[in-house]
Each structure stands twice: as structure tokens, then as C-alpha cells.
Task: inverse folding
């Protein structure tokens, strides 16, 4: 049952169709006769236009697949393009819904099995009848629960319609809509980014950090970013900075550790850590936004350093590494030296820190995903009502608890080795970026038009004019491609449109010398008109006197 | 005329091998203090960063662009800001100096780095660069941002590519079959003599150092002290050098230099110390530096100037170089600063005496003669004090607004002349060029046009046979230590003459507005009577009043002005 989703972003002719609840969407999956092969467009809301294509595959094939690997193998038989999604019904699933690594969602049979209450009722004894009716009731409950889970996975992990709509609205009307957390965190759309990894060693006399940043970027960061090469160009740089101490004084807190103390850094002062670094992070040649990652090695005399929340609790720590993220700026990782090394340290010899590469890189890549706008999958909870319902039922029928074991697992996403990106995650990001870029390009062109209306002196050269036309055409082309469900092409066109529109708007020829200020015109003309106006005004007085005199004469 | 060319140095290597850290780069900081016979003290700081690249020279040369991008993107001690600019614009070699004051070659000898007044920049771009002018523009703009200097005013109209004066000092890619692959079309030189050098240039300069100005010798660079000197010059010198003798490996070398001339004549006592010059003692070495030394040239401490050094140096080196014998006192900062801040004092035992000055064998002067604002003459005088002939290259560059019949184009490129001369022994050579002063377009005048136009210095390049008063490092050396006992066949100098201020005919910029005002007033004055004549008629009207009525009406007029029309 593959679901084809032309990620329609009706851009020029906004389509606000009647919002069919996503609940009904699932019924469409289940109730539509599988033998009907024709495509069935479904309008969910303003942004998406979903086309569903049904396929029937051999049930033997599905029952033979037990492991995720086998499932993935079956799914790979479907040739899925960027932006498409396959919903695959399977029997042997430990979870209700499993989101695969590629563009597949596996859902268990319960989700699709329509409870046939009536057919189950057979002329038997009343005891059996009541049992079967309870059974069917449970089946209904499971069905509703399972379908709602699938719908929520679709809408909260994959489609993210509300988020997309907010992104668009916040760009067009920033005064009316405030950005959500994700929007504030992720970098604005740009065709290229710099990723700068900075290792700060504040006291090289006492602390030695052994790490090959170049190998680290080549082995971990660059392969990760190469998966996003369709999105933007990334260039990874690294540098070492020395003698840059923290600008804040962490509070010394006595504790029971071997060192007898740790240092507390309040969450409120974290922004102040970034400020002194800023002057060493700027680039003189690159115009691209920089995603900063700072590794701050804590020297022994102020170690271990821990971050405390506003409420006074310590952050959860893993392996001497504390990390925080600054929206639209980057991430910071604090590396504490091992306690044993600090105890054994001699005053004239530096302590060596060998950072745990995987932990630090893992933190960075997680932060990078968030900064780029790949949303964190929301943990899907079941509504309390259903849970109570189920709990009550399970109390009665312990036998059936096996059935519910799946619900304890709930939704699962297949985790990938080496923090690789899921294909559907990239698709999500592509959708977000497409809508951002298209809206932004449109707004840029609009403001340029507005500017030209207000200041008529601006000269549009042929180059700029051509850019404006191209940008407009690209916006239209992109929207057209999106209507046809070609997300990849649509995205690339929108990127080009965005870049072209920006280039047209920020062309230096717009600010040419042709601008002649109004006040200078007055400065030139006043010496002529002011003295010449004096006799004219005086004669006006005479005219007035002449007419008023005549009026009195007439009277 | 004899064809004379500085031999192409394609095999340059570091003479001493250092222990290589896992990062493959090292940093050295050095300070040379040299008392001059004229009772000045020459203080020369040099911060050297050498970054050994892992790739061997052949592949490096083949894919220099790709290589530089991949290497420079991951910097350790090498400043990332500068590294990015260098790799972005495919720079093979870069020399940038920001100078205030004029170096007196006659009195002070030859400096470590020759630098003309104001800003001066010389760049060799990689030979694969297609559009050199574009890269040049981008490079100077980026450097302007990095050093807060007006290098963005460098444009093709004040840049030249002389053929003989400048040669690459680093590794040069020798293409197969081509003996001299150096092509001056990839060289750009420009001088901005008007640039004023101050604190805002020093701060970004210090920021490029791995220890910033927090540790090491850079703590001595306090702008209040170093900008009070008779001459100060900061420089950035980047090149590619060989890291081994057969040059299979290359390194990137960055030398950051500060040259200062302190005056000890004006003081009552001749004594000087680090604290007196820089306002503070030395707190300690930069922990990242491999070499952290102070040298004091104590050669003059023998005849009539006797002084003693407090504290006594760690070591003394005798350097014999090209017939010049120098005695150098070496202080290792690490060992001296272990007890805390330390200061080096030079205490004279004798009274105020002038040292013996052995004048430099080659120096030059330049000045303008003529009167009026129509034409003048540019005179360059070159002095040869040596007993033999000297071969020199004279580079005269003249801005485009002083038209001469030399290669160059108005508003496009300056005029320049390179002459290869053989100076007779013990002679003064005078070279003069007549110039016209031209009118510029009104937009081409700078603010305060009556101040005049600066003209960059002439450059005289020579290979001196002896090293008298000669300090520069040998081409194969990176640190000051490499200049000790470094006798070579010739000693390269590139003298800069004075920069000149020329007053071009300058229009009165307020004239158009004055004309507008005057013309408008005249029109208005003419318009008033014309208007009156055409709209008013003169009518005779008799007013009959006796003297009492006249007096009354006069008083009434005075008191009640609003009721004027009572008649």
C-alpha cells in the first residue's frame, strides 16, 4: 500500500481546502477496497495534496519477513523517489508502527484490520456470544488505537503540516505569528554553510589535548554532511584556539568526589561563554553562515565543570561531556579532564585529555541535525482515555495482554549505525527548506517591487532585471514541479529561485550614485526661487487689496 | 647594460630540523635588540609559524588549489583568518607591511624587512589563477578587513607587476622544460603611502598569533609604547618553503614581524631596558612556542661604548657573516622567566658618546624639484659607497596622474620604469624624470584634496657583496637564529626611498555652488523690478492734510499698526 505524496506546496494559488481530519485519512487507508488500483487524491489541508496508490503484494512474502533487515529488503523492491513514502503492512512486528531507515513505515496488521463485529457474532451460546462481543470490542479499541498511532506518526514525524504552515506564515507575517522552537533554532535557508569546529584550550601550559580534528571531520562530519549535499554545500573547517579563558567564574561546589569539589556553571551565564569566542570565529572571506561547534577543554583547576539548570539541578551528564546548543549559532561541548589525571597531575607538567571521540562527535551531529532543521521525532504518547480503556480491559482479560505488548513498544524508528540520516528525515528537511526558500524568494521579490515603487530613482540594470525575471520563473517552475510530486526538482528550483532573488535584491548597482537627495535639490533651487518669490508674493498682496477694495466699493 | 637577475631560489630549506609535533606545525617567537651607532636601538620582533604539510612537494604543486583548501581548513597554530584568505585567493606568497616613518639606510643599516612608508603589499598568485586582477581585488579587500587598513583602495590603477625587482622568495614550481617559470603577470605590487598605521592595525596583527597578546613576547607590543617610536613597521610575510634539504616536502611559513626604532639620544642617560621601551617586563614565554628567545647585538660593546647587561645572558654567539663580525647575547625567556617577570637592562659605564658609524654601502634619496602646478621633476639619487661597482635594479613607479611617456595608461595603470644599472665605485648616480601635473575629474579628488597626493617610494634592489650593517634573514632561513653565521654569495636588499607628497592643481570645489548662488541672486534681482514694472502702475496721488492732522496720523500709525487703511 504505497502512499505517494506529491508534496504540493500550492504557492502561487494558495489552496485552502477543507481540512479533513487526519483521523479520516487512516480510514481511507483501511476502508478503500484494496482491489481499486486507481489513484486517489486526498486533500488534507492547505499545504499538502496527497496521492495514494495502492498495491497488493503477496502475503506469503510478508509473513516470511521477520527481521527488520528482511522488511527493509521487501521495501527496497518499491522504487521510491524523494518525497514518496511507502506504508507497508506486516504481521511480524513488535511495534504498532515502525519507521524504517529509508522511506518506509511498517505498520502491524491490527492497524488495518477492520473489526468485523457483526460477522463475528454467530448463533452460539450466550456465554460465547458475550465473549466474542468483548473480543470484538477489544479489537475495535486496538484498531482505533493503532490507526491513530499511524496517523500521528504520519502527521507529527513525516508531514509536519502545522510546522510548515507556521514557517510560511511567520515568514510572510512576522508580526502575527511567532516562531516555534524548531524555527528559532534552525539556521535560515542558505545554499551553503560553513561548519567550523573550534577546540579551545584555555591553558596550554597545564592542559594538553590530543585530538586530530582533521581526521575527525573527515571520518565523521563530512560523510554525514555529504548525505545532505542536495540541500546545501557544506565546508567543514577546524581550528585550535589557545588562552581563551571563560569569561565567567564558575561557582565552586564541594562534593563527595575524589577531588572534593566540582564547579557549577549556571544555565543563565551560558550565552556569556560564547561572546569572547565570537571575535575568533569570524571569517574574512566567507559570506556563508557559519555553524559553530566549540569544544572547550576544562583545565584541572576548574574541573569538573558542570552545568546547572535554572532550577538548580545538574544536567544529565555522560562521559565527562556537557553540551549545550545556541539557536542559529551552534553548539558547545565542555570536556572535563578525567578526575584521576587531575589528581595525579604534577604542577609543572600538563595534563593530557584524550576526548572521547564518539561521544563528542555524536553530540555534535545531534546538535547539527537540530540546527539544520531536522526535527526531533516527537515521542508519541497514547491518549489517556484510550490507555484507561485498555488498562480496564486488560485487567479483565489478562489473556489478551500479549496483544497489547506491542503498545508498550509503541512507535519505533529504526536507528541507523553511525548517526546516519534516515531518508525520510532528509525528505522532511527538504520540505521545510522548500517552503522557506519559496516564501523567502517571493517576499524578496515583493519587497523589491515595493522598494521600486517608493524610491523611483533606483535604476534596474539589465542584469538585475534578468535576475528578477528568472527568480519569478523559477518560483513558478518550482511550484509546478511540486504539484507533480517531484520534491527533489522542486527543491532545487526553489533553492535557485531563492539565490537569484537574493542576488537581485542585493545587487550593488541598486545603490548607484544616481540617487540624488531631495534636500540637495532644495539647496540648489532655493537661491533662485526664494528671492524671485518675494516680489510675486508682494504683488499677491496688492491683488488681494485690489479685490477687497473693489468689494467695499461695490457695497 | 648587463642583464642581471637575482638567481631563482627554487631550493630553499630549513637548515635545522625541529622535533615535529603531531600537529606538524611549530611556532617561534624572537626579539632582536640592536643598538645602532646613531644612538638608536632597533627592536625587531619576529613570530614565525611553520606548518609542515604532509603531502610531498610534487603532488602539492600539481594540485595546489585543492591541497591548500584541504590543509588550511584545519588549522592549528597557523591563523585561520589569514589561512582562509590565502587559500581562497590562491596566494603563493604574500608580503604586507604597514609602516610609519622612514628608514634611514645611511644611519641605521639594512632592516630585517624593507618597507616603504604607509601600506605596501606584494603578492604572488598561483600560476593557475586565471583572472589575477579579480583575485588581487578580493585579496586586498579581505586583508583590509583583517587588518583594518585601507588596502581596499588598492586597484589596478595603483598596482604594478614589475619583471625584475621582485622574485619569489619561496618554493617555485618548476614546470618541465621551462627553466624560468616565474611569470610576473602573477605578481602584484602596490603601495599606499597615505596609510596611517596605528593601534587598530596592531590589534588584529596580534590576534593572528597563537598566544594572542596574552603570553610571550607579544605582551610587549603595547600600542602606547610602540607607536611612540621614530619608526615602526609591522609585517606579514607568507611563503612556501621546503621542509627538507631535497625539497620533497614543503611547509607554509608565516613570519609576523614588528620593527621599531627607539631613540636613546634624547634621554639624559643612555641606559635602556625592556621595561623602558615597552612599559613592562617579560612575564614568560608563549607556551606554544618552540623557540622563545631575546637577542641583543653587543658588537658595539667594545670600543668607546661600554655597557653591561643585567641580568647576564644565557649564552653568547659570535656571528661572522659576509665580513661582518657580530657578537650576540642570547636570553632564553623560559629559563629567565621561571622566577617571575624579568627585565633586561643595558647599563652604560661611559658618558653620552656617539658610536662610530660605518655608512651603509648603498642608499638612495628621492625628491621633487620644480615650481608651479604645471610640471616638475622627480629626482632619485643613488649612493654607492663601495670600492667596486654595484649592479642594481631601480624601480620607479609613478601614479597615472603624473603622465609620462612610460608604459602605463591614464586611470588604468600607473607608469613604471625598471632600470638595471651598474653604479661606478664611490659614486652618486642621479636619475631624474620630468613630469606633468594633470587635472583630475572632480570625483577623483580625495577628501582634503589640497593636502596633496602621495607617491609611493622607488625601490632599489641589489645583491650586496658584503654584509656590512646587514641584518635580513637568508632566503633559506625562517628564524633570526638562521641569520647568524649565514654567509652567502650575495646579500639581497630592496631599499625604499622616501614617499613624496605632490600638490596637483586642485579646483575650488565650492565654485559650482557659489556660481549657482550668484547667478540665482542676479536673476532674482532682475526679476523683482521687472515684475514690479509689469504689474504696477505709477499714479500720482495727493494727500491733503494740515500739520496737526499729519502729526496725528503719524502717531496713530505708530501706535496702531493694524489699522493702516483709514483713508
Result:
Amino acid at each position: 500500500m504505497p502512499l505517494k505524496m506529491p508534496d504540493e506546496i500550492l504557492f502561487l494559488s494558495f489552496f485552502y481546502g477543507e481540512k479533513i481530519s487526519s483521523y479520516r485519512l487512516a480510514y481511507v487507508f483501511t476502508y478503500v477496497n484494496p482491489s481499486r488500483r486507481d489513484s486517489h487524491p486526498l486533500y488534507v489541508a492547505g499545504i499538502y495534496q496527497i496521492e495514494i496508490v495502492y498495491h497488493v503484494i503477496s502475503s506469503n512474502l510478508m509473513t516470511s519477513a521477520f527481521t527488520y533487515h528482511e522488511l527493509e529488503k521487501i521495501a527496497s523492491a518499491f522504487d521510491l523517489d524523494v518525497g514518496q513514502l511507502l506504508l507497508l503492512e506486516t504481521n511480524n512486528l513488535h511495534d504498532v508502527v515502525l519507521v524504517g531507515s529509508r522511506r518506509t513505515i511498517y505498520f502491524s496488521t491490527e492497524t488495518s484490520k477492520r473489526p468485523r463485529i457483526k460477522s463475528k457474532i454467530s448463533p452460539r451460546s450466550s456465554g460465547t456470544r458475550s465473549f466474542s462481543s468483548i473480543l470484538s470490542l477489544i479489537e475495535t479499541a486496538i484498531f482505533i488505537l493503532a490507526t491513530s498511532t499511524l496517523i500521528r506518526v504520519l502527521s507529527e514525524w513525516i508531514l509536519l503540516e502545522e510546522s510548515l504552515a507556521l514557517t510560511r506564515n511567520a515568514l510572510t507575517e512576522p508580526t502575527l505569528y511567532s516562531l516555534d522552537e524548531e524555527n528559532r533554532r534552525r539556521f535560515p535557508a542558505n545554499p551553503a554553510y560553513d561548519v567550523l569546529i573550534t577546540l579551545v584550550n584555555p591553558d596550554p601550559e597545564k592542559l594538553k589535548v590530543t585530538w586530530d580534528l582533521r581526521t575527525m571531520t573527515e571520518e565523521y562530519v563530512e560523510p554525514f554532511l555529504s548525505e545532505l549535499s542536495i540541500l546545501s554545500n557544506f565546508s567543514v573547517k577546524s581550528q585550535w584556539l589557545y588562552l581563551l579563558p571563560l569569561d565567567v567564574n564558575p561557582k565552586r561546589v564541594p562534593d563527595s568526589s575524589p577531588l572534593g569539589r566540582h564547579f557549577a556553571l549556571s544555565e543563565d551565564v551560558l550565552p556569556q561563554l560564547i561572546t569572547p569566542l565570537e571575535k575568533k570565529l569570524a571569517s574574512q572571506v566567507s559570506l556563508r553562515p557559519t555553524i559553530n561547534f566549540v569544544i572547550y577543554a576544562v583545565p584541572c583547576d576548574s574541573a569538573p565543570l558542570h552545568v546547572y539548570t535554572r532550577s538548580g539541578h545538574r544536567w544529565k551528564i555522560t562521559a565527562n561531556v556537557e553540551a549545550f546548543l545556541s539557536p542559529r549559532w551552534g553548539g558547545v561541548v565542555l570536556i572535563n579532564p578525567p578526575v584521576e589525571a587531575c589528581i595525579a597531575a604534577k604542577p609543572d607538567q600538563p595534563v593530557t585529555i584524550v576526548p572521547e571521540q564518539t561521544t563528542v562527535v555524536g553530540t555534535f551531529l545531534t546538535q547539527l541535525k537540530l540546527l539544520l532543521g531536522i526535527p526531533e521525532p516527537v515521542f508519541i504518547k497514547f491518549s489517556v482515555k484510550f490507555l484507561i480503556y485498555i488498562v480496564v480491559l486488560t485487567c479483565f482479560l489478562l489473556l489478551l495482554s500479549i496483544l497489547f505488548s506491542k503498545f508498550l513498544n509503541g512507535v519505533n524508528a529504526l536507528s541507523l549505525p553511525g548517526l546516519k540520516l534516515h531518508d525520510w528525515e532528509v525528505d522532511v528537511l527538504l520540505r521545510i527548506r522548500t517552503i522557506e526558500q519559496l516564501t523567502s524568494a517571493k517576499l524578496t521579490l515583493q519587497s523589491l517591487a515595493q522598494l521600486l515603487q517608493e524610491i523611483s530613482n533606483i535604476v534596474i540594470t539589465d542584469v538585475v532585471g534578468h535576475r528578477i525575471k528568472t527568480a519569478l520563473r523559477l518560483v513558478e517552475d518550482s511550484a509546478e514541479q511540486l504539484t507533480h510530486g517531484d520534491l527533489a526538482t522542486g527543491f532545487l528550483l526553489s533553492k535557485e529561485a531563492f539565490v537569484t532573488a537574493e542576488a537581485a535584491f542585493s545587487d550593488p548597482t541598486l545603490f548607484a550614485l544616481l540617487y540624488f537627495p531631495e534636500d540637495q535639490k532644495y539647496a540648489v533651487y532655493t537661491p533662485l526661487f526664494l528671492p524671485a518669490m518675494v516680489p510675486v508674493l508682494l504683488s499677491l498682496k496688492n491683488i488681494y487689496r485690489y479685490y477687497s477694495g473693489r468689494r467695499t466699493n461695490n457695497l | 647594460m648587463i642583464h642581471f637577475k637575482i638567481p631563482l631560489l627554487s631550493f630553499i630549506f630549513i637548515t635545522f630540523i625541529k622535533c615535529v609535533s603531531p600537529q606538524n606545525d611549530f611556532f617561534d617567537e624572537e626579539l632582536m635588540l640592536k643598538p645602532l651607532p646613531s644612538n638608536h636601538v632597533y627592536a625587531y620582533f619576529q613570530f614565525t609559524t611553520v606548518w609542515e604539510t604532509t603531502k610531498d612537494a610534487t603532488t602539492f604543486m600539481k594540485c595546489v588549489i585543492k591541497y591548500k583548501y584541504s590543509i588550511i581548513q584545519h588549522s592549528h597554530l597557523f591563523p585561520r583568518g589569514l589561512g582562509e584568505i590565502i587559500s581562497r585567493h590562491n596566494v603563493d606568497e604574500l608580503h604586507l607591511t604597514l609602516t610609519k616613518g622612514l628608514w634611514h639606510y645611511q644611519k641605521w643599516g639594512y632592516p630585517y624587512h624593507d618597507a616603504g612608508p604607509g601600506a605596501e603589499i606584494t603578492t604572488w598568485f598561483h600560476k593557475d589563477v586565471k583572472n589575477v586582477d579579480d583575485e588581487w581585488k578580493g585579496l586586498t579587500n579581505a586583508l583590509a578587513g583583517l587588518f583594518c587598513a585601507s588596502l581596499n583602495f588598492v586597484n589596478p590603477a595603483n598596482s604594478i607587476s614589475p619583471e625584475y625587482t621582485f622574485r619569489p622568495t619561496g618554493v617555485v614550481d618548476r614546470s618541465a622544460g621551462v627553466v624560468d617559470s616565474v611569470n610576473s603577470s602573477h605578481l602584484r605590487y602596490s603601495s599606499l603611502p597615505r596609510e596611517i598605521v596605528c593601534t587598530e592595525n596592531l590589534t588584529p596583527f596580534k590576534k593572528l598569533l597563537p598566544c594572542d597578546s596574552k603570553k610571550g613576547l607579544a605582551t610587549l607590543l603595547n600600542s602606547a609604547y610602540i607607536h611612540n617610536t621614530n619608526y615602526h613597521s609591522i609585517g606579514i610575510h607568507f611563503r612556501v618553503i621546503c621542509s627538507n634539504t631535497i625539497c620533497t616536502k614543503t611547509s607554509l611559513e608565516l613570519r609576523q614581524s614588528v620593527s621599531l626604532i627607539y631613540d636613546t639620544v634624547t634621554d639624559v642617560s643612555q641606559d635602556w631596558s625592556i621595561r623602558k621601551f615597552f612599559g613592562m617586563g617579560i612575564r614568560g614565554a608563549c607556551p606554544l612556542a618552540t623557540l622563545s628567545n631575546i637577542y641583543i647585538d653587543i658588537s658595539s660593546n667594545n670600543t668607546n661604548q661600554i655597557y653591561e647587561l643585567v641580568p647576564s645572558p644565557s649564552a653568547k654567539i659570535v656571528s661572522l657573516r659576509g665580513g661582518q663580525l657580530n657578537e650576540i647575547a642570547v636570553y632564553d625567556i623560559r629559563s629567565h622567566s621561571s622566577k617571575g617577570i624579568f627585565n633586561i637592562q643595558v647599563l652604560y659605564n661611559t658618558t653620552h658618546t656617539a658610536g662610530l658609524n660605518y655608512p651603509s654601502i648603498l642608499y638612495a634619496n628621492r625628491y621633487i624639484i620644480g615650481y608651479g602646478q604645471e610640471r616638475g621633476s622627480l629626482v632619485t639619487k643613488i649612493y654607492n659607497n663601495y670600492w667596486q661597482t654595484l649592479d642594481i635594479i631601480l624601480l620607479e613607479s609613478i601614479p597615472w596622474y603624473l603622465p609620462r611617456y612610460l608604459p602605463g595608461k591614464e586611470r588604468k595603470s600607473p607608469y613604471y620604469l625598471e632600470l638595471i644599472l651598474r653604479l661606478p665605485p664611490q659614486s652618486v648616480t642621479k636619475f631624474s624624470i620630468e613630469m606633468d601635473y594633470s587635472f583630475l575629474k572632480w570625483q577623483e579628488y580625495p577628501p582634503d584634496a589640497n593636502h596633496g597626493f602621495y607617491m609611493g617610494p622607488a625601490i632599489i634592489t641589489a645583491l650586496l657583496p658584503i654584509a656590512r650593517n646587514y641584518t635580513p634573514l637568508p632566503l633559506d632561513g625562517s628564524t633570526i637564529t638562521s641569520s647568524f653565521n649565514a654567509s652567502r654569495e650575495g646579500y639581497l636588499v630592496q631599499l625604499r626611498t622616501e614617499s613624496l607628497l605632490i600638490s596637483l592643481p586642485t579646483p575650488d570645489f565650492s565654485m559650482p555652488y557659489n556660481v549657482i548662488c550668484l547667478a540665482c541672486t542676479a536673476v532674482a534681482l532682475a526679476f523683482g523690478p521687472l515684475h514690479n514694472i509689469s504689474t504696477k502702475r505709477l499714479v500720482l496721488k495727493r494727500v491733503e492734510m494740515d500739520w496737526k492732522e499729519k502729526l496725528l496720523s503719524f502717531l496713530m500709525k505708530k501706535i496702531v499698526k493694524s489699522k493702516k487703511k483709514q483713508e
Observations:
- Chain A has four domains: 2-166+378-419, 187-372, 429-511, 516-555.
- The radius of gyration of chain A is 33 Å.
